[in-house]
Amino acid sequence: MDVLAHNSLKSMELDHKDGDPYKLATKRLINKVAVVTGGSRGIGGATAKLLAEHGAHVIIADVLDELGTSLANSINGLFVHCDVSVESDVEAAIQLAITWKGKLDILFNNAGIGDIGGSITTLDMKRVSKLVEVNINGVVHGIKHAARAMILGGNGGSIISSSSTAAIMGGLGSHAYTLTKEAILGLTRSSSCELGTYGIRVNCVLPHAVLSDMLVDAYRSFKQDFTTEEIRQTVSENGSLLRGRCGMVEDVAEAVLFLASEQSGFITGHNLVIDGGYTSSSINMTFIYREKKS
Ligand SMILES: NC(=O)c1ccc[n+]([C@@H]2O[C@H](COP(=O)([O-])OP(=O)(O)OC[C@H]3O[C@@H](n4cnc5c(N)ncnc54)[C@H](O)[C@@H]3O)[C@@H](O)[C@H]2O)c1
């Protein structure tokens, strides 16, 4: 079973015992037009599906053509080959929304690549440049061209980017990954200042240890035969305050849906942390909450 399918199953088991909330919820994005970069799989794939379930017309922009085309077909959306590090690719993906439906309401700037660890003293600068090109430049391209289209459209819009908890806490990602994800916070804040004038909201999500291909690859770079289930268990036990609960791609998708919809209409310049509480507390000190023996 692939990671996405496995994730979906676990998420349903844990959270959705009383029925499928996607079907129960009122549709929140009727006739909205969205572009999701990195939408072929993982967090972007789950978000593309959820936005479509809520009535949005979705364009998936990714370098994984086969997966992306199949997912786009399944949600009545479109797929466009797009390497976010190439500005003209991102511009073309945004333009496709205008050609297709005459407007752009939502951009989920999610495409990104991971990195393996290693010492700052031996940092491979070619690798750093690669991460900067995709994780930072890709997001800059997205905000720049989505903002242009949204300003011209005159109806505001919502731009959401994928940062990471590595942006707010040391020790959660490699040096290169960390610096790229922190840059997204700065650009989110600065562009929200300018774009608020046009009713365009700019926010980012900070997921933590979400079971996707990226996370599995990262774990396997340390131990090749790690199974997906072992990784899920390790993260569930050590990676959140909600013991036994590992972050799912659907958890991030729900947060993006909120930021994309009018339910978050007064929220901009915000970084929404999705980490099961991990970065807000020290799990090493929980003994102080135990009842004292008299
Ligand atoms: N999984 C986690 O634990 C986690 C935690 C924090 C942040 N994030 C961030 O969330 C985002 C999605 O990650 P994921 O976990 O779903 O990983 P993933 O590897 O499953 O998905 C990433 C997607 O981005 C696409 N992509 C990569 N490079 C691209 C490029 N140059 N142009 C266009 N598309 C490209 C991939 O093809 C893939 O579809 C990333 O930005 C990642 O850094 C993930």
From TrEMBL:
Keywords: Oxidoreductase. It comes from the Eukaryota. Pfam families: adh_short_C2 (PF13561). Gene3D superfamilies: NAD(P)-binding Rossmann-like Domain. GO terms for molecular function: oxidoreductase activity, acting on the CH-OH group of donors, NAD or NADP as acceptor. The keyword Oxidoreductase applies. InterPro entries: NAD(P)-bd_dom_sf, SDR_fam. Belongs to the short-chain dehydrogenases/reductases (SDR) family. This is Glucose/ribitol dehydrogenase.
